[in-house]
Amino acid sequence: MLNLQSAARPVHDRGKIGLAVAGGGPLGAIYELGTLHALDEALEGVDFTDLHAYVGVSSGAIIASSLANGISTPEMGRIFINSNAPDLALAPEMLLQPAFREFWQRASTLPGIAFSSLLETLKHPFSRRLAETINPLTAVVPTGIFRGEAIHEFLERAFSAPGRTNDFRDLRNRLLVVATDLNTGKARRFGARGHDHVPISRAVQASASLPGLFPPTEIDNASYVDGALRRTMHASLALDAGCTLMFCVNPLVPYTSGEDPKRTKSRHNLNDGGLPLVLSQTFRALIHSRMQVGMQQYRRSYPRADVLLLEPDRDDDEMFFTNVFSYADRRRMVEHAYQRTREDLLRQADSLAPVFARHGVTLNTEVLQDSRRNFQTAVERLDTRDRRAAICNRLDDTLDELQRIIDAA
Question: Using CA atoms, how far apart are residues 406 and 401, in angstroms rounded to an integer?
Answer without folding.
Answer: 9
